[in-house]
Amino acid sequence: TAYDPHSPYSASKASSDHFVRAYHDTFGLPTLVSNCSNNYGSFQFPEKLIPLFINNIRNNRPLPVYGKGENIRDWLWVEDHARAIDVIFHQGKAGETYNIGGHNEWKNIDLIRLMCTIMDRKLGRENGTSEQLINYVKDRAGHDLRYAIDSTKLQKELGWVPSLQFEEGLEKTIDWYLENEAWLKNVTSGDYQNYYEEQYQKR
């Protein structure tokens, strides 16, 4: 599918791919391009949805959901992404592009409700407690409704497949953040708080 970015942010990422392909076509530079769906896992900075909501649920803070929460994303465990990069680097054909996806699309609101259920269980709270923290906020300008990735080429040509089912990976991810509270507190101190307040203003 041809690139069709709708925000300066996504346009900047598309342009970088075009530059790389142009150097391969014009000068024969041995390039490889990979495009990946949303990652989740340990050590992810908590401006991203999953670690942000883990942290907020634990601390009984509002869960800022863009728009109506109907944006759809495909999710991939970060270690599966790292394995795919390694496979593409060593086995991929120069000049080719490979999509890395989890075949695992979720509406944001459905993912958030699943996280609330898991967190209530792990924190010993009554089921449904964390859902009460959901707070709908103004959607981002140019925010795409759906990101979809077809990784059939990568699977057929290079033999890569995701290693984890999403529910298993999400449980492992939540456990990691609950066990590494000191790391999370360290990276959410200082200027991050100012960024957070600006980014997630109420509607």
Automatic annotation (TrEMBL):
Q: In what residue span(s) does the NAD(P)-binding domain sit?
A: 1-173
Give the source's domain of life in one word: Bacteria
Q: What is this protein called?
A: dTDP-glucose 4,6-dehydratase
Q: Which organism is it from?
A: Sunxiuqinia elliptica
